[in-house]
Amino acid sequence: MYSGPFVTLGKAEFSNSQNANIQKWSAYIKGSVNRQHYFERALDWVSKGNIGDYMSRHRYDNNITELKVYFNSVIDWVSSVFIDVESEMCGLEWGRLYEEYHNTSYNPTKVSEQVQKLYGDPYVKNRKGIFEYVLGGSVDTKLLSVRVFDDATKKTVYATQTNKAKSDGKSNCPLCAIGHDANKSKIWNLSEMDADHVTAWSKGGTTSIENCQMLCKTHNRAKGNR
Question: Which of 38, 194, 214, 224 has the fewest CB atoms within 10 Å around its CB?
Answer without folding.
Answer: 224
